[in-house]
Amino acid sequence: MTGLDNLYREIIMEHYKNPRNKGLVENQDYRLFRIKNPSCGDDITIQTLVVDGIIKDCRHIGHGCSISMASASVLTELMIGKSVEEAEKIADNYLNMVANKEYDENIDLEEAEVFSGVRQFPARIKCASIAWVAFKDTLK
Amino acid sequence: MTGLDNLYREIIMEHYKNPRNKGLVENQDYRLFRIKNPSCGDDITIQTLVVDGIIKDCRHIGHGCSISMASASVLTELMIGKSVEEAEKIADNYLNMVANKEYDENIDLEEAEVFSGVRQFPARIKCASIAWVAFKDTLK
Amino acid sequence: MMNNPWKKDFPQLTDGSVYFDTAATSLKPQSVIEAVNHYYHDLSANIHRGMYEAAVITTELYERTRETVAHFINANPEEVIYTRSTTAGLNMVSYIYGLEKLNEGDEIIVSELEHHSSFLPWQNVAKKTGALIRFIELNQEGRITVEAFKKVLNDKTKVVALTYVSNVMGYITPIKEIIELAHQYQAIVIVDAAQAIQHIKVDVKDLDCDFLAFSGHKMLGPTGIGILFGKYALLKELDPMEYGGDMNEDVNKDVSTWKEAPFKFEAGTMPIASVLGLEAAIRYIENIGIQNIHEHVTKVHRYALAQLNQISGITIYNKGSETGIISFNIDNVPSHDAITFFAEKKVALRAGQHCAKLICDWLGIYSCMRASIYIYNTYKDVDLLVETVKQAVEYFQELGF
Amino acid sequence: MMNNPWKKDFPQLTDGSVYFDTAATSLKPQSVIEAVNHYYHDLSANIHRGMYEAAVITTELYERTRETVAHFINANPEEVIYTRSTTAGLNMVSYIYGLEKLNEGDEIIVSELEHHSSFLPWQNVAKKTGALIRFIELNQEGRITVEAFKKVLNDKTKVVALTYVSNVMGYITPIKEIIELAHQYQAIVIVDAAQAIQHIKVDVKDLDCDFLAFSGHKMLGPTGIGILFGKYALLKELDPMEYGGDMNEDVNKDVSTWKEAPFKFEAGTMPIASVLGLEAAIRYIENIGIQNIHEHVTKVHRYALAQLNQISGITIYNKGSETGIISFNIDNVPSHDAITFFAEKKVALRAGQHCAKLICDWLGIYSCMRASIYIYNTYKDVDLLVETVKQAVEYFQELGF
Ligand SMILES: Cc1ncc(COP(=O)(O)O)c(C=O)c1O
Ligand SMILES: Cc1ncc(COP(=O)(O)O)c(C=O)c1O
Fold first, then answer.
1. Contact assignment for C268 to D217 by CB distance below 8 Å
2. Contact (CB, 8 A) for D195 and D113
3. pLDDT by residue (tens digit) across D324-336?
């Protein structure tokens, strides 16, 4: 069961149990995007506040499997403070990594690196991606 | 080419070239039924006059292959003068014969017997049947 | 039971994996694979229009299958329409009957047990016509009962669209009684038999249903083929949904006319290979006997349930399931986390909402796992399933779920 | 040419018969048969919803095929919708666009070259919406010309539904110029590519068509699968036609929402085996190269025409055919009489109206025979065809036709 242990890394479980930046705020300045994946029951909303090209806040809410929930939590923590440009680069790189596509190893994914184990589970790529795709949409 | 020669018997060709009882009459006492077979372009109308349970007249019009045209001609000639009951029996028997189903050899199909060659050509059963099916519908 | 006599007919089962996902799609016996293959390899002709030998043979097989299907469900051949799937058949009814016949204020009865393919077409009809959707209140167990049906049935009821067997709960709907009642109110009844056809005897004359749909791929047959049964009197009167080659009698620039049912409902080239494969599937089922299938499934199901009931840390939602479907969750573990564990152990289950979100809502869950049992499943398969459930409970508990 | 390098790939061609009925349905190469077989024999899983290995592999192959199709016609994958057939695809457009967008007085342009599947859905839309059908006047040869198209195009034109290649005449429609003109009037153009896709390069970006449909079974692929291409901007905006499993995003008792295109147009379990077989068919065609196919067909066609032209007692209706289709009659012999002669000689042709009655009307005939040529046909096949035509002429003359 080494494969599964690669998926359920400690950091992931930690974020799953203690999600950061959870809950939305009522503020029109935030951009919000929601994605549902009906076949698995995932439902994630990401909320982002950008000021002067810098991500000042990033929040999430929803329900789903541990991978999708943890990846949302990791995402928000990682993105706060980044420039929009940087954030997009990181998100694209992350999405490529979990999808087992080519990605730039020089771009620092920080804690999000732990989701590399997903590559061995093609059926779970969506779980790890959904929050990040929603996040990218909040930047559009 | 013995098979084909069984299909295109002299009597059939004779009826095809010199159809009997061809052309409809304008008379409300006649019952009329039309059948089209769009895939082959057959289009046959049968018109029947029944008086006191006896088929007084039977006519046909349409276009189609030689088998369908000749079988319409043979049909009309054969049916005139028969009782409705007899006619139905003969028609059913004929339809069973051309479809290669069991049929009663004791019932006299007269000239229509020549269509027995159709049995070897499953794709042509419809051609030999269409007028007879229409005829049966005029009796309903 | 030690030697399952049918398992050997299913070539998919060779890598030691066990298959508990028949409710999604069944495995195929060799005879079905060969029937499809025979068409592609030896015939490969179009139907109804050819005179050469392959075309004649193909047409014969195609129409013979219609008779085989008719015999299987006790219908007349001209009441059997080939479709792409259950979904296509149920949608067709919603178009040819629902959108044409329903008006504002009319009522459509459905249930929360419906598969999306049985519910959404009628939600669409309701939206477009102004008709109202009414839900039968499910009993405590989540079942449709005749009593509850009576409470929503009334003079305004025009359509009743219900599942014969729920794909999540595995319950058999008392559909015959419901149909009898509905007909007293001149409502028509559309039966979704996608999960019934492979488990119990479906007899449309006995049920007296107006329409009934199912799919080949869930009953050992090919993908891409489904059957819509419709009472001839209805089919005769209704207009086609799709227009095109082969379904017409005469085409003119201004007006055209259609063939008789069922042909007017089959436009263009149909899934010929899958039709031929479906006949082989029905033959296979008939050879075993649907009653024997039901008994086998029931036995294996009971064996599974007895053991699963002993495991603490899981919740089973349908202990009264009658068709070999077990829906459950490992407590506190989202089903998509759990399912990965089973996939790793080569135990093929399904996780999610099973295209039946309304019953998930009713159960108060986001999703669940489903194991569905069929003839190729053995006690040994169950042992592996049970063992894997135990391991999974432990694994996820240790992870801290 | 002596050794046709492709013929050996088609296992149907073993009994000495020759196949000239590709326009009805094509033969299948071994690779297509095996792709279908692979699904049934080794995978047999449903897509998009499973986590176990067979389900994951099947989903990958299913979506990879979408990319293969997209590449083949130069579309984006999200513009590629799986359907049952050309007929199903063209009907879908008539529902999701035609019935929704057209109003009384709007005009729909079609031609007498249309297959019934391209014409009848629009006759239905006209009847239901009060829109008007307008026919492009064919030129002397029976062709659609840009000039004639201009005469019917006007501000009221909302839809242009035309065949890319006629299944009776074999002519290639100047569709690109027509699309450009139609777009100047904000009309959308739906292209029936059922007879084009296997003969010429179809490039939806270059054509700039709004919708385009074709069938797998006429392009060496399986039955039961077709493709509907739609421009993404249109697909995004339009509502689904069928509702059910897998096409929704969220289902609730009151309102539901749909997935993005193309998924919202694919309800329930699709013809998975046929999708996988279609990929093999496209690969097979791409390996040969569509240009090489066209050249081969053209060569064999020219060879056939040269000889048929010498035979007195037959009438050929489309000497200018560009895609290997020869439509003809033996003078004074109904086509269904004639065709039986060919069937006896194991020469597979088709007789009838070819689901295109309007062009038969235009030609002033009830029906005709059609020989259609494809890659597996050889000069030798043609010799047999020609010889059989000669014999048939003689035979029927002697009979007194
Ligand atoms: C030009 C044309 N359009 C449409 C069709 C319909 O295709 P299908 O029968 O596969 O739906 C055909 C073939 O029959 C055709 O030749
Ligand atoms: C109860 C029920 N109805 C309808 C369907 C839809 O069947 P299909 O996907 O074959 O159209 C299914 C299966 O998915 C089902 O289980």
1. no
2. no
3. 999 999 999 999 9
